[in-house]
Amino acid sequence: MNKFFKKKSSLIFFIFVPIIFLWHPNWLGFLGVQPYWPLFWLLPWSMIYGSINGIIYGLFFGLILDSLTINSNLTQIPGLILCGFLFGRIKVHSDILLGHFRYGLICSFGSFLCGVLYSLQILIQNFSNSTFLLFIPSVQNILTEVFLTGFFAPIICSQLFRVFKLSGRKV
Amino acid sequence: MLDIRRISTSRWWHKKKNWIFFGIFLFLFYVRISKGSFYKDIYYFISQPFWPGQFQKEIILKSIDQESLIKLNLLKKDNKRLRAILSLQESSDNDDILAAVISRKTGSWWRQIILNKGSKDGVKIGSTVLGPGGLLGRVNNTSYLTSSVTLLTSPVSKVGVWVDRIEISGLLVGLGNDYPSLMLYSKDADIKVGDFVSSSPASTLLPPNIPIGIVQSIDEPSEAKKTAKILLLAKPQAIDWVQILNSKI
Known about the structure:
With about 170 residues, chain A is mainly α. Chain A contains 7 helices and no strands. Chain B is α+β, with helices and mostly antiparallel strands and about 250 residues long.
């Protein structure tokens, strides 16, 4: 049983991401905004298994998270695929402490990228009547999400990195 | 002619791993097309122990003041009678469904709540969802056990509203923050801070006269329209129980 959990831990954490996305625990948020959860899984996974795996799992996350949000005309897939690709090109740092804080910076950048791509879709779709009104809340949402993702990334990503390394095989 | 044949028979479709990935992709694509109904139904069972309890429900129900309830019923009867005389739209409260909020996303761009009642309980897409205070949003999609509600604050929400004091219709647009914007397509509309906003009697999406919010501030008029910030009466971040109106509009 223990061996099974060790081997399948990456899959278990993969399933846990959409659940926490739906759960939306307010005590982990700020101004009603949550960290961008899929990046915490995608970063260590892509760093270990490379860009192609990052793109594939970015697509999988995008498909799942899009189906859980009701804005059917908007998609998170481009942002997550791009992050999966970029994260796969990053090499593991030898300095553990520096490596931990680097996770924060990389995840913040990824969150910024996904946020901008998502808000651009909203702005383009509402181009006619409320573009200017939408702009300020969009910036606020992006900045809060970037801060929170960067804040939690060093703790979560380093633990997941260790777990994925130990499990040692792909899903 | 020489018949050139490949010696190696290794093709991508010969690899089991590729078929597994393709299978996962097809499954996730199905989940996406079905708008996550499979995943939401699983979440329904997982989150069941954490639903708001019966005690909380009783507190909310008891908190409704008896006197105002009687007054409200009298006004409803009066309203119904007058609407019948004027041949206006009617709303019936026979098919109301009480539901608990099992997932809540009231921040960021995804402003939605998921309820523990779905198509099994008769919830239909487009049904109006009310919370203590007034209108929360509309049901956007349903699975067998759950239904997702687009909140008025969501950037994809647009509903017709009525400003009672100046008797003018407008459009309430969600912006992705807690204050949706009221758009009045008249530069000279005499809207003031504190004006009460309700659902429009002319709306084809919502039943008439449901309380929505109060004008909090008015922006500078631009071109041919006037916009105002609306403070919603129903607070989705604090509501655990809602009412789904399945009535005909």
